[in-house]
Amino acid sequence: MSLALLLSEIHRVTIFDVNPERVELIKKGRSPIDDDEFKKYFLANDIKINATISKDDAYVSSDYVIIATPTDYDPETKNFDTKSVDEVIADVVSRNPQAIIIIKSTIPIGYTSKTRLKYKKDNIIFSPEFLREGTAIQDNQYPSRIIVGDRTIRGKAIADILSNIAISSNPKIILLDSDEAEAVKLFSNTFLAMRVAYFNEIDTFCAATNLNAYQVIDGISKDPRIGEHYKNPSFGYGGYCLPKDTKQLLANYGDIPNAIISAIVKSNDIRKKFIAAELSKLLIAKLASKETAVILGVYRLSMKSGSANQRSSAIKDVLKNIQKMDLKIIIYEPTLTSGEHDDFDVIEDITDFKEMSDLIIANRRHPDLEDVNHKLYTRDVFGGDV
């Protein structure tokens, strides 16, 4: 969506989507994504993007087709499920074989070269994105680097298109072979996951030994070689990218010796189990003082503030580990309507939610919860998505 918005300021852009409701929202100049950044951009700009549910309308006259469909990790095949990407490539090749296909979806290492061989075409190109949720437009305007998995004139043309939407002057352009570009994407996200896991393990140690996590992490991060970013403890990493990308990279290793990559995936599981164990201690104490079932309130299922992303949410895995206890779980999640979600009651009114809850868990602090700090369990020591 961020690419479509920025490219539409220079080029004629058509969005194809399988969801008619999203298409209608785009046509009306409204954001199809529940994300604060996109909503503000739509309100502030005269958006001129065509949207359609017709593959012919989207592909037949296009010079470039950018694929940004999701690729979830399949634990049975130990690989990304690339069916959605496969389908789009087949649709484009059959309708417009001359179109240059740019894959932005995260894919296994070796996917692009194999797909080129399958179709006997060299106009299928991988260009990884490095966007943060909640700042995707800004990240495209001020890119850390632009990477294209093609070292020919075609790859340079794609890099130029992407650099032309950037506000920052002369962004770093790197042209690689497709396999190397795919590796850059997976290793980059796995490094970020490693950093999250590392600070979470520091926080686990501090919680277990009664050390002040804020003071310890603050002292560590003041070293410029380590830095202040991605340091705030959480219940574990989740979201669209890190859980699946770390598992895919580990699968790509196969029999290649490794210790760190496998440890990152394991560390995240251990962290969620530790959080569940700490919660269980608090809940057992609550149960001992109540004749009725304890009510556990869950403040937000989404991974980051200002977003509706619940994919691979760490808090959901934490809940799975404590469900066997004699308690009632209620959820406050503004993106959900009242009723049930995963067998939990959804409470729409924040005041009712706080009053009903005996204990509240939140991956991130929020002003909504300032008056119930005595009920709050969180490992957020710095406040926000630091």
Draw up the topology in text.
Layout: H1 2-7, E1 14-16, H2 20-27, H3 36-44, E2 50-52, H4 55-59, E3 64-67, E4 73-74, E5 79-80, H5 83-95, E6 100-103, H6 111-119, E7 124-126, H7 136-141, E8 146-148, H8 153-164, E9 173-175, H9 178-209, H10 213-221, H11 242-253, H12 260-288, E10 294-299, H13 314-322, E11 327-332, E12 339-341, E13 344-346, H14 350-356, E14 359-362, E15 376-377
Helix pairs in contact: 9-11, 9-12, 11-12, 12-13
CATH topology of the largest domain: Rossmann fold
Task: List the strand order in the largest sheet.
Answer: 12-13-11-10-14-15
CATH architect. name of the largest domain = 3-Layer(aba) Sandwich
Give the overall form: globular
Largest sheet: 6 strands, mixed
The tally of strands reads 15
- The percent of residues in helical segments reads 40-55%
Tally the structural domains.
Answer: 2
**What structural class do you assign from the helix and strand content?**
alpha/beta
CATH superfamily of the largest domain: NAD(P)-binding Rossmann-like Domain
Proportion of strand residues: 5-15%
| End-to-end Cα distance | 24 Å
Question: Secondary-structure element sequence?
Answer: HEHHEHEEEHEHEHEHEHHHHEHEEEHEE
Global mean pLDDT: 92
Give the uncertain stretches in residue-range form.
Answer: none
Spatial extent as radius of gyration:
23 Å
Tally of helical runs: 14
- Text of the CATH class of the largest domain: Alpha Beta
